[in-house]
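Re: [help] complex structure
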Amino acid sequence: MKEIEVRPLSRAAFAPFGEVIEMEGADNFPINAGRCIRFHDLATIETAGEHARPMISLFRAEPCRLPLTLDMVERHPLGSQAFIPLSDRPFLVIVAGETENGPAEPLAFQTRPGQGINIARNVWHGVLTPLDARSDFAVVDRGGDGVNLEVHVYDKPFLVR
Amino acid sequence: MKEIEVRPLSRAAFAPFGEVIEMEGADNFPINAGRCIRFHDLATIETAGEHARPMISLFRAEPCRLPLTLDMVERHPLGSQAFIPLSDRPFLVIVAGETENGPAEPLAFQTRPGQGINIARNVWHGVLTPLDARSDFAVVDRGGDGVNLEVHVYDKPFLVR
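Output below.
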């Protein structure tokens, strides 16, 4: 199996796919008489299509172990999807660019504590993949009418390690 | 000083002011082949006015100690504001109803682990008030043009305990 090496998540590396939601390096300013710092406007929420609206949900996901076999990615043609971890545990972020023949080879990133992500609309990505233990996330994505899911199964699976 | 007693946060008690964002009692269903549970659509995001859009930010807030003196509340006429704690530490949620003469006497709620809140548009509330230690929050509120802040100073302060 072709191997995909997990690399650390960073704003620069993730920029083609969306945003890293983290305090480090973010525009920020004090509010509430200096008792709070606001790290401001860290993600572009996209909600397209009929009756579209942003939604807040909570996800509780079972952990995966590396190495893992990846044979599919999905994307949401009508909206972005933000995942903000409610713990300090890492999760894997698997994304893929777009080619004429569908998704490119996947890239895999591992978060460090304090990093969430916003996957831009129509970007191919793997499902939510916490490491170490069952983990909870705040999720901001799109509600509305229309088909907002496309799935792609790769001809040959990848080994993410 | 008039005393306001802190009570536990619950969906029922908070319903007039917005939503409690928590897994307990929430509509939920499995996704990702059963590896994740989605607690679905837990808050009503409101964004009114010119060029309005929802925003994701992170807040880092200094802690308060009880009892605390409360002399002001604020509200956002153009948008809701959701606070989801990124730790298990409690925070205070201070809100007030509306009377003919401005905000009513405040109510104070204390969260338990796993509880966030969404304060509805135009609801009077206190500033973000973590207890115990400096705490981080994911915040979903409104960006756009127009004046989205009103502040009210009470004639006499309250003692929240």
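Chain A is about 0% helix and 50% strand.
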